[in-house]
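Feature request, filed as a ticket because there's no other form

It would be nice if the structure record came with a short human-readable summary line next to the C-alpha cells. Right now we just get the raw output. Example of a typical job, pasted below so the devs can see what we mean:
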Amino acid sequence: MKYKLLWLTVILGFFTYFNIFAIEGVGVSGSKPLTTSLVANLLTPDGGENLQIGATSKIIWTHQNVFSINIELSTDNGLTWQAIENNINANIGSYDWTVPNTIADNCKICIKDASTGVLYDESSRVFSIFKGSGLFGEGVSGSKPLIIISDFIVKSPNGGEIYKVGSVHNITWEASGVSNVKIEYTINSGASWLPVVASTPANTHSYAWTIPNTVSSLCKVKITGVENNTLVDISDYNFSINATIDLDMVVVKGGTFAMGSAAGSNDETPIHNVTLSSFQMGKYEVTQKLWQQIMGNNPSTHVGDNLPVAGVSWNVAQNFITALNNLTGRYFRLPTEAEWEFAARGGVSSGGFTYSGSNTPGDIGWYNGNSSQVPHEVGTKLPNEIGLCDMSGNVTEWCNDWYDANYYGASPSSNPQGPSSGTFRVIRGGYWESDGDGIRVANRSQYLPNSASNYYGLRLAEDLYTLIVTSPNGDENWQVGTTQNITWKSSNVDNVKIQYSTNAGSVWLEVEGASSVPAVSGSYSWVVPNTPSGYCKVKVSSVENTTLFDISDNVFTIKSAVVSTVNLTSPNGGESWLAGIDQNITWTSSNINNLKIEYSTNNGTNWEPVIASVAAANGIFKWKVPSTPSINCRIRLSDVLNSATNDVSDNTFSIVVPSITVNTPNGGESWQSGTKPNITWVSNNVSNVKIEYTTNNGTNWTTVNSSITATLGTYTWTVPSVNSTNCKVRISDVSNSAVNDISNDVFTINTPSSGTITVESPNGGENWKVDEKKDIKWESTNVTNVKIEYTTTNGTSWLPVIASTSANTGKYEWTVPNTPTTNCKVRVSDVSNSNIVDISDAVFTIEAQAATKSLVLTNPVGGEQYKGNTTQQISWTSGNVSNIKIEFSTNNGTSWEQLQASIPTSQNDTTWVTWNLNSANCKIKITDVSDNSVTSQNSNNFTIFNYPDQITVAKTVTFGDVNTPSSCRIIGIPGNINNSVSQFVSGTHKTDWNAFRDNGASANYYQQYDGTEVFNFKPGRAFWVISRNGLNVNTNFNNVTIDSDNNYTIQLQAGWNLISNPFDKAVSWSKVVQKNNITLNPLLYGYPNTYTGNQTVMTPYEGYYFYNAHNLSGLKIPYNPSGVTSQQLLKGNNLFADNNAVNIQLISDNEKTSEIYVSVDDLASVDFDANDYFAAPGGFEESSIKLINNNLNTSYKYLLKDTRPIENEGLTYEFIIKAMSNKNNELVWGEIPAKYDNYEVYLIDNRINKLYDMKKIESLSIPKHYNENKYSLLIGNSDYINSVKESLTPNEFTLEQNYPNPFNPSTVIRFSTPYTSNVNISLYNVLGELVNVVIDEVKDAGTHEVTCNMQGLSAGVYFYRLDAKSIDGNKNFSNVKKMVLLK
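Raw output as currently delivered:
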C-alpha cells in the first residue's frame, strides 16, 4: 500500500491552517526486535497518523512477561513526555485514548514499565494532532482551498528481485513536490532499517546502489522526505540479497527416456520408460573450493581447490545444501536417481552411449584405467551431449532417493522420487578406482546415509520452477473467524491461486480474494471461514502453470469459534459487606483472558470501576469495600476485549459503614486513681471494640481492654495510679482500627497522695570499673515509672541512663560507661512528676580498665611451602606491645634459632631469606621483648624445601593388544623436556608404534604423528601413544622452573587439552582446581582402557584430558615437595554424581565402562553451567555412552552430566552409545530417584522408536549388530510422554532391508505397523520354498526388530516376506525383500 500525504491550505485573511490526513489509512510499522525477557512493543500509533482533537484513538501494543505499563505522550518528538494513563494491565493490549486539545505535528506515544519506569517502546515516527473545526477552521464560505500534493512512490526494488552482493542496481522512484530524499533498506521486513544514503535529490528519480554483504530474503527499501519525514514509501514486497557464489548450472530439458539396463545387475531391471520435467544440473561435481566457501572446512583426503569434494556422507551433503540455499536464496537439492541417469545419458540429446558422453571411458571420465588411483580436477575430460562433465568416474555422486533393488518394477512413470523409506541412499557414477562396469550410466550403488568414504561426492540439482507451502503445513489449530497468514516460497512464478480443503484434499474450495496473488508476496492474510474440520490442507498453485503447485504436508485443524462465558458467584445478592474491609469477589469463566470489574450503588444505573483488568483464570479478586453505604449494590464482570460478555449480581447486596461514638469520659472529668468509673459508647455495625487511654493527649496510648463486645456499650475501668491533666479515651473497631472515636477533650487522673523515692546504691564511696555491670537500686512508693541519670561532675550536669523503667522492680542493671572520674552520683526521679526525686548521698568512683597486651602472628599461618633461599614475609598484629623478637624452628618447636633480637611492632611485618634445607616441621615465633609471656606462633607447621635442579626420569610403559585401539595410553614425561615421541619408542612408525595429539577442535581433533615439533614431549604436554615394544625413558632432565608461588604453568589451547604432570611428584588435582579458580567442568579425565572423570591426583608419566571451560591461557600446577600420600592416590567419589540424578551405566561383559547423569533443577541454566560436565572426546575406547545437547552455545556438545530446568511439561535428553558388537552390552540404571515420583521417566530406542518405562525395568540389552546406537531419555508429565508416544507411532506399514546384509549367520529385520496387528515374517529360498517362520504373533503399533539366525543354512540368496493384518481386519500389508547369506 502506498502512503500519500495531502497538505490542505486554506487562505482566509491573515489566518492559515493545515489539515493533514492519510488518504489510504494508517501505516503500521514492522515488528520490533526483542531486547530483554520483559518486552512490550508499541504497534499504533507508530508514525504518520493524523488524529483529530476529541476523537477516540486506540493505542495498541503487544508484550511478553510485562504486568503493567504507563502510557505517555510527547508533542516535541520525544524531548519531553506527559502522562496519559498509569498502571494499565499489560494483558489488555489496547487503550481507548481521547485525543487532547493540543495541536502539534511532532507527536509520539511511548510505553514504560509501571514499576521501574524502563522505556519499552515508542512510536517509530511522529504523528499529528489537528483541530477539525472552530477558530481558523469553521468551514468559512467564499474561501477556495488550495490543494498542494507532495508524493513519491518506490518503483524498484518493489518485491521479487534477486540482487547479488557487490553488484550495482538502481533504486528508482517517482516524486513530486519533494526536494531531497533519504534512502534506507531492511533485511528483516522492516523491523529495523540500515542507511543507504542520508540525502539525494528527489528529482533524479534514481540512485546507484552497490549491494552490501547482508544476505537476506526479507529485504525492502524505504524512501523518506528529508525536509518532511512524514512522507515515506516502502517496497510493496520483499526482495532478496544473495551471496556471490559462482555456480555453473546446465538446463536439462525435460523428456522421456528408457531407464535401466539389461547388461548390468538385477537391480537395473526392468528397463522402463520415465518422463521428467525440465530441471538444472551442476556442470561439475561440487568442488573443494565451493565446499570450503560454504562450510568452512574440507573433508577431502586429496586436497585441491578444483578437485571434487570427497569424504561426504549423504547427511552432511544435506547440511551443505541447506547452508548454500540460505546464502543464495535458491532451492538447490540432490538430483533424483532418474534425473541423474537422464542427465548422464545426455537428456533429450542422448547418443545412447554406455558411459556419459562416449563409449570410450577414458575420453569422458577418470577411473582405474587412467586415474593413477587419485581424483582429478573437474572438467578436465570431455563433457557429455548436454555439457555435463565427470558424470562417469572421478567421485561417486549421491542421489536423493532411498535405494530399493526392486524399485524399477514399481516406479512411477512420471518424475519418480524413489521409495518412501529405506536403509541405504542411492549413489551413482563410480569413482577413480572403479572399473569400466562401475562407471556405466546405468550402474546402481547404495550406501548408508551416514557413511563417508573418501570417494563419496555430490552434484547439485535445482528445479526450474519452485512453489513450496510453508504455512499451514500440518498440526496447526486455527479458529474460525481469526486472521491467519498463508505463506509460501517460490521462484520463477508470477501469480498464485490459493485454495483449501476440509477433507484432506478430496475437494478444494476457493480462498476468497485469492484467485490471483503476486507470488513474490509470499504471504496472504486469510480470515478463517466457518468450516470446522480436523482434515484441512492448503493448496497454492501457479496461475500461469496449473501443474505447478504445492499442498500442506500434513492436515491442520479449523476449530469452531470459541464461546466466552463468565459467571459471578459472589456477591450475588443479600450479602452485607462492611466498608473498609477486604472481601472476595469470585467467579467462574471460560475462554476469557482478562476481566474488568465494576460496582454500582444504585442498582446498576451507574457503574464505578473496581479494577480495569484482572486475569480471568484467577477466579477471585480481593476488594477493599469502599465507604459508599447503600442497600442497592451490585457487581459487574465483563470481558476486557468484549464487554458484551458479562455477568451482574443476581440481586442487590449492602455496603454498610461502621461507627463508634465515645460518650464518657468526653472531656472535663476528674477521676481518681483506684476508682472504678464506667467508660461508655454507642456503635453501629461493629462486633468488638478495643479500649485505650492516654495521659499525654494522644502521644502514647495504653491498652485498657484489647477486645470487648461492642453492643455492651459500657466498661467498668479501674483508674490507674497516674497523675495527669491530659487524659483521653480511645475506642476502636478490633477488625478495622480506622473506625474509632476519641474523647472530645482531656480529663484528669490524680493520685490520693505523693510518692517517694530513696536511692540505695550507689550511695557514696563505691569504686565501679568501666564496662562492669552494676545494679542501681532504690525504694519507692506511689510511683509507677522512674527516670535514672548519673553525673561525673558532682551534680553540675547530668547524663541519661534510662528515660523510663518500672519503679516496682527497685533496681536497674547498668553497664558502667567509659567516663572514669571520682565525682559520680546517681539521680532517680518519678517520670510523671520530676519533683519526686532522690540523689546518691555522696560521690562514688568510676575506674578505667587496665590496658591489655595482644600479639598475633598473621604470616606464616601454617601449610605454606617455601623454596629454600627465597625471600618470604613475616607479619603480625599487636596491641600495647613495643618490640618483639623473632625465632625460627625446624623441629616443630623443640628448639629455636633467633632471626631478630628486637624489632618495633609498628612495622607490622619484616622479610627473611629461608634456609636451604628440607623440613616439613617449620615454625615462626614472635615474643614481646619486655614480657616473655606475650607470644604467638603458627599453630600448624609450614614447609621449606630444597628444589632440585635435575630429576631422574626412569619409566617403562607397556601396552596390551596393539591391534585394539583401547590399548592406547595417554603418556606425559616430567621435567624440562623437549624430545620427540619417536625417541622413546622403537621400530617403524605406523607398523610398530604410533602417536596422536588433540588439536582442540570440536571435530577432526586427532592429529597423527608427523615428525614435527608439535609431537615433542614438553612440560605438561601429553600424547596418545601405542607401541609393540613399549615406551622407555631412562635419563636425567632439568627440573621445570617454578614461580614464586611454587607453580609451573602449562600452556593451554581452547577446548580439550591433553595434559600431564610436569613434576616427578604427584600433584593433588583439587589443589590445581583451587589454584586456577576452576568452577566449570573441574574434572580430570584419565584413561585406563576407558574414561574416568573422577581423577583426584596427577601422577607422573600419566596423561589426562582437561576441558578449558574458562578459556585459560595456562594452567598453574602447584609443586608439592612431599608429593601426595598413598591415601590421596585412591580415586575419589564421582564429583558429578548427585542423589537426584538419573544415572545410566553402560555395562560390557559385566564390567562398567562408561556412564552418564541427567538431572532436573529449576535453578539450572539451559546452557552449559556449573551443574553440567563434558564427556571426554572419544575415539580409542571400546565402549562409551555420551549425552548430546545440540542446544549448547559451546562448540563441543557431548556431556557426561546434563542438568536442565523443566520446561513446559517435560524434557528430552539425547545420548549416543558406542559398543563393541562382540560383547554383551546393556544399559543399567537401577531405581529412579524419589525426586521424579511425580514425573514419568522413559527411555526411547531411536533406532526403532520404542519406549521403555524406566520405573518398571532397570536395564536394557543393546543389540549386537549395531556398533552405534542413539537413545533419548524423557522426563515429564503424562501429557508430555503421551505426545511423544503419539509422534513415534508410524503412519504406514513398512518392511526395511535387513542389516547387516550380506551376513553370517545372523541379521536383523526391522518393520513398522501403524496398528496393533497380526504379523508373520517367513523365510524362502530362491525356489520359493518356505525355509523358516521368523515370527508369527501379535505386535503393538510401532517399529519392531527381530533377529533372524540362519545357522545351518547354505550360503546364497533368500527372501523374507512380511504379512501384516490389523486386528480389526481392516488393514492388510505384504512385502518381500532379498537377503544374502555368506559362509
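Something like this underneath would help us a lot:
The mean pLDDT is 87.
The two ends are 75 Å apart (CA to CA).
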